[in-house]
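Step 1: inspect the first sequence and its tokens.
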Amino acid sequence: MKAFLKTIGWVFLPALLLTRCSVNDTYTFEGTIARAGNLQVLLEQVFFNSNTPPVALGRVACDANGHFAIEQKQAFPPGIYRLTVGAKRMFFILDGTEKQVSFKGDLETIDRLQIEVEGSETLACYARLIQEMVRAGQLSPEMAKDFVQRACTPLMQAFFTLQLMGRNADAHLADFKAANEALSAAMPSTPYAEQFAQLTSSIEMQMQQAQAAGQIRIGQPAPEISLPGPDGKVRSLSSLRGKVVLIDFWASWCRPCRMANPHVVEIYKKYKAKGFDVFSVSLDRPGQKDAWVAAIKQDGLEWDNHVSDLQFWNSAPARLYGVSAIPATFLVDRNGNIAAINPRANLEEEVRKLL
């Protein structure tokens, strides 16, 4: 029900100038990062859809003082960006009007946008709001809505909607629609608008299908799932009877799923000793076993119960459970009955009730 699918770009970019120069017709993104001396820096434009490859804008090395500069002859397109410095990553948004952007920060905190910005009102706004979110800690639904409303551009509004409301998307369909309408008007025919529109449509369609089908109801026994894991060993949901189990439909290609994984890992580590477990069903494509296995490792999904028939949307368990968008989750009680459907924002509360 509350789940997410896939998300958004295709942009042609000119040849890059990777060294500083005095020409006035260049567009520059530069920074000075404490403790980043001589580290490699990669700047990329990224999209909502994890299937859309990022566009590399420049790769340079910081000097001994942690300074770097990336230049090109055309403006940086309005979009979402990812800056990788050594092992650290910083996501941010530009509006396309920037001529020369510079920032100062520290390697230990740039991923939390603890930076000082010049040359981009949009980046400065984004950094300010992220800093407020970090200070606030866990956000209530009301706080999340407030941050979305305070976003400085329609793209930022859509990005915050996805980040802050994605785990409980069906409860926030109106917010997704509002963000979609604003983004479509501001950036028509762009990958960002097209992909966010697809995402919003998929959420609405999933809700309609789930309401119409009514295949899985709270209180009914959870249908059996029995499939091989990455090692070829067959794992069955029924083998976990007596535990509280989260059935998690996901895939390596699904960015919202990957974004939700850290929260699932957190709950698993906190309650596994009390009888909580996770049964992960991957909707990866045929021939993508390596990507599935790599995602399990990268996201630290340390439980043993990973299964898949590698049939993408033709997955037999997905059809059985009426899953048409992911992530989709079902919480099963110790007796093997469905106790909650898509418990995301309140997952810990629901788990505690059953334990």
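Step 2: inspect the second sequence and its tokens, then contrast the two.
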Amino acid sequence: MDEYLGKVALITGAGRGLGREIALGFSSLGAVVATNDINPINLDETINQIMQTGGNAKAYVFDVAKRMPIEGMVAQVLEHFGHIDVLVNHAVVAPDAYILDMDEWEYHRTMDVNLGGPFFCMQQVGRVMREHGGGAMVNIVSSVGNDHAQKGCAAYLASQAGMMSLTYTAAHEFSAYNIRVNAVRTGLIEEDLFPSIGMDTATLRQWLEAYPELNLGEHPDLVGLVLYLCSNAASSRTGQVMSVGRGN
């Protein structure tokens, strides 16, 4: 996949978990990685890991919950690298609150980060890609809750359902500009989000046993799927939601 040499990949939520692994994956194939996260300490660790393997990356500490910071981030990436070829929307929050108890701030924060962030990232980066002849976008979406309601996750799951529709619509609108938009379903809420939703690993195991039909994707497979969807090998794929692991 030397096609990634010289390409610039912008990854949101790259300071931890799957987002970090995706950033490392693009770097390992020669891409320049623009890593974003709201936590500078986590992002520094991602950058250090990329640099230790001989990669090229730069950190962009921005809150992707609002349009203005996203505009500033995209402008800085362009100032540093001149173009953006790949966008991966991974940044996400998952508050632990029942519908009757959730306050307005928690609800809007969830929607702003999980749905508004990808929308405005796709808008801003899409304009860049349109001017440069195209590109590829991948939205990371959890499939948790598609078939089974989960208490305390209403806002989070609503945002994930919205991401599906956003992916389909963006793929349709962007196709005229050679911009492909797909989504990868992770099959679960990432382990490093468990504290924020009140779920420990023991609870996770019990929960997965209760719903054996849920798709549990392994990170290496998920990273590989993201890399594939952004490659020339997937040039005919757009507007698709794909998953890996059990339950496919």
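Step 3: confirm your contrast with the notes below.
The helical segments are 17-28, 40-52, 67-81, 104-131, 154-174, 201-210, 219-229. The longest helix spans residues 104-131.
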